Amino acid sequence: MMIGKNYIGNKQSAQGSKNYKTFNPQLNRENEILFTEATPQEIDEAVYLASEAFKTFRTVSGEQKALFLNAIADEILALDDELIQTYCMESGLPEGRAKGERGRTVFQLRSFADLVKEGSWVEASIDTAQPDREPLPKPDLRKLLIPLGPVVVFGASNFPLAYSTAGGDTAAAFAAGCPVIVKSHPMHAGTGELVASAIIKAAEKTGMPNGVFSNLNSSGIEVGTKLVKHPQIKAVGFTGSIRGGRALYDLAAQREEPIPVFAEMGSVNPVVILPNALKNRGAALAKTYAGSITLGTGQFCTNPGLLLAIKSEALSNFVSELANEIAKIEPSCMLHPNIIGAYESNKSKMMAQKGLTVVSDVKKEVNANYARQAITTVEGHTFLENTNLHQEVFGPFSMVVQCKDANQLELIISKLEGQLTATLIAEEKEEAHDYSRIISALQNRVGRIIFNGVPTGVEVCPSMVHGGPYPASTDSRFTAVGINSIKRWVRPFSYQDWPNELLPQELKDENPLRILRQVNNMLTKDKI
Amino acid sequence: MMIGKNYIGNKQSAQGSKNYKTFNPQLNRENEILFTEATPQEIDEAVYLASEAFKTFRTVSGEQKALFLNAIADEILALDDELIQTYCMESGLPEGRAKGERGRTVFQLRSFADLVKEGSWVEASIDTAQPDREPLPKPDLRKLLIPLGPVVVFGASNFPLAYSTAGGDTAAAFAAGCPVIVKSHPMHAGTGELVASAIIKAAEKTGMPNGVFSNLNSSGIEVGTKLVKHPQIKAVGFTGSIRGGRALYDLAAQREEPIPVFAEMGSVNPVVILPNALKNRGAALAKTYAGSITLGTGQFCTNPGLLLAIKSEALSNFVSELANEIAKIEPSCMLHPNIIGAYESNKSKMMAQKGLTVVSDVKKEVNANYARQAITTVEGHTFLENTNLHQEVFGPFSMVVQCKDANQLELIISKLEGQLTATLIAEEKEEAHDYSRIISALQNRVGRIIFNGVPTGVEVCPSMVHGGPYPASTDSRFTAVGINSIKRWVRPFSYQDWPNELLPQELKDENPLRILRQVNNMLTKDKI
């Protein structure tokens, strides 16, 4: 049951005087429960507990961490209807989405449980000694990945479960051996509190140290700012706006001891539609993209906000079809009045840009907080000249850039900011083959490239990259999705000539965990 | 033959009017050749060429990159005596060191050649499609590591070969597929130019694109600053002082598009000597450590600048022995008048700190630029109270901290800044076992921990970590030494539903390169 308090470790606490409520955008009214923002003292206590917890949590075995992660998944499922109802009440999203996102969250937790239980993820590497080597003996060196320390995770507005309290960042950090302090997202503080209660229960049931997790309520920027600047915090995970992510990145970079910030931020996810594909299946593509642009009311970070093609009659037909198809879709609810406010405002600003043509802009009356989708077009040279047109309009909005020719298309791609994804729509591989320079230009700007599909839908699997060149993320060398996202929270550590019995299990001669290790340049599960 | 010009790609160029010479510290006089600093136009041209070269270099096969890297090694060896003499003339280091460092440089280049020729380093990962999955089909996803783009490498004063022009950073960047622009170190511009000529020759012989490498002369901070701020530069490698590395890190973080800076910086490399070890072999340890502290005139980043022990008669004896042993060692030459100047100044400042006792300070007359080694001691509480005492004195200087008890020792360790290494000297594993909290505290502060050895000597092998928590490096998640240092310059990239024949070799169904890949969670060299 929600009570509006913070979790400072396993203790519920509400010492502050600053309160706020969440909002039900479908009913267009505030929800009842009053949340109490964390005070500076509560923040300090949460960080202190996390630092203390780190001393033991960082040595907890993979098997124990797996029990913890699976227990979190179990406790989240045990929240059952209360969680689903709270999620819907705080996000305006439908029950099906709530259940789907819960499924994904549980899947992520269990995937990390499997990863750490198996154990080879630490990339154990052993180079044995050569005492007789000339001119100098070679020492014995053994390496593995170890956790960075306490991590702060910022809940994301558009994924109350999968990218928030017990989402991918948190699951990866726990798997790594890092305590987590969540800065709860104010739009879904109740969902956050419920999931936090599940994590606390799981930690207690599986014997994790108090402080391995805290959940701090916050409606402004103060709590997050204080957390990121705290000397005992060693890394930050964030999903949200460029402005928010960059502010945290700057704070972290200006610390006496800078720390890594992995922020997954804005992206317009360019889609390049090649001429033959446009000619042969323009109508079908228009229908598919009308669906992708409006999916989840356009509130996915992989929403296709930019469609690029070379001018032709087929392109004109496609634009008309897209306008028709998108107008058929029923407007749907956005997450919060602030989100719809920003959408309406950004859409208006974009539509006021010189040279932009509005080809579809639903005008009919809609419920409060429901977003009206829109499609615009612009000439290639106009897009090149005005970088305002490159900005993301978060919501069901997309822009079709009509390029003069393939060279202009390539130039536009090379001028784009970094993106999470790009999509190539081609008449099978033959047409793609003719546009290899376009493909090459796209690859240089993004983290993932899709063939004849849509960018929405981020499969959680080891081969997924969710990240990309700035500003898609603050560090393109990592992914936010999939088991490799654990690498954001770990560092390599090496033991030289260390006695076998004092080594961690992963590096002992006898390989008691039976993990895969690189021994003198050979991958093996064998003993030394 | 040296001519004092920059390499802007394969063209020798000296359009600027700012000149400087290198210095022979052994002879205490300037060397003859006049080096011309790169102009802003030359910098822009080098970056332009690097960006253009990246378009093809990033797709060059591992086999071709291996030929290039091995050719660099060959060309460096072909420079023969001219290189060794120039190295010695510009560093004051002995010929044996020059040859040893050349051997290491060549070994590093060949290790990266082997790595990319074999090819599995790209961490190829494939998750095949499941078109019938419910509720949604699973797409085919395939991932590999790709290069970031043009990298700037700053030459290090203390390793004219192994951490400079064709050193570890450059070799790793080439292996990754990144063009490199070296900001040559002004103290060894001639050595740098010779090695640059070897790289250019190798690039031409193996058909690499012009601009894959440039070498820019620079005596101040302007060239480096402009390079790091250049929008087309995508990453930076640096080895040097905390002040220098932090300045570059700040510049990079303040860019519109922040880029990764891997700076390997200061470290005092704490050595903890446990009581029984001190009692049983204090004299031998004193001799060993006198050697380690003065090795290379104390100019290694792993120099043991801080010895920590619990007070006892044995510790007093050890301090006396260490003072005796170090006084026996002949002073030797530092790299440059600026380096010896900084050493003398920092040593004096340190010796002026309240509570510091000087137990050995060689006073005898020495040649110009020769460093006089020194040993000091301080009480544990004094060290805790005065963080000036935690600073590095780059050179043959060390401080023995006499701790009240094990608790104070642990507290001191927990208060230390991040370090490259820590060393534990124990009477075999039994004594180490009794001090597990000390070991745990050390691990939390460093990148590598050594048992009963010395920190000097950095073995180049896959299990080496050369890096550590800030300020040892700007990002503890990477190492500067060993093949894994390639990870600083690459990012994961994923293909979704991409046609097999358009995929890179590494990800094709038939696995034509026969590399090890993770396919549906199984490591295998098999085809799909």
TrEMBL record, chains A, B:
Keywords annotated in UniProt: Oxidoreductase
Cited SUPFAM superfamilies: ALDH-like (SSF53720)
Membrane-traversing stretches: none
Higher taxonomy: Bacteria, Pseudomonadati, Bacteroidota, Flavobacteriia, Flavobacteriales
Limits of the Aldehyde dehydrogenase domain: 15-459
InterPro entries xref list: Ald_DH/histidinol_DH, Ald_DH_C, Ald_DH_N, Aldehyde_DH_dom, Aldehyde_DH_Superfamily, ALDH_KGSADH
Annotated protein name in UniProt: Aldehyde dehydrogenase (NADP(+))
Keyword Oxidoreductase assigned: yes
Source organism of the structure: Gaetbulibacter aquiaggeris
Record-linked Pfam families: Aldedh
Family matches, as PANTHER family: ALDEHYDE DEHYDROGENASE-RELATED, SUCCINATE-SEMIALDEHYDE DEHYDROGENASE, MITOCHONDRIAL
